[in-house]
Amino acid sequence: MVKTKTLLLIIVSKVKFLNLYPIFAISIICNIAEMKTLLRILLISVCTIPALAAPDKKPKIIDSYYVDGYGFVCDYENAYFEIKVLQDGDSIKVHSYNVITDNPVSVQTYKVLNDSVQIKWGTQFMFNAKGKVSLFENIDLVRGIEEVIKYDDSTRVEQHVIKDDINKTSKTTSYYPNGKIKNLSLTELSVDKKHINSIKTWHPDGKLKREQIIENGKTIMLKTYDDEGELAFSLPCQDGDSVFYNAEGNIITRKNAVRRGVIRLDGDSIKITSYNNRGRCISVENFMSYSPEYTVSWGVQEYFYANTPQPADSVWIFRSVNGDNLIEKTFYPDGKLKSSSVMTFDNVMVPNREFRQYYPSGLLRRLEKHHGEKLVEGHIYDNEGNEVFPFYEFQQ
Question: What is the reported pLDDT for 360?
Answer without folding.
Answer: 94
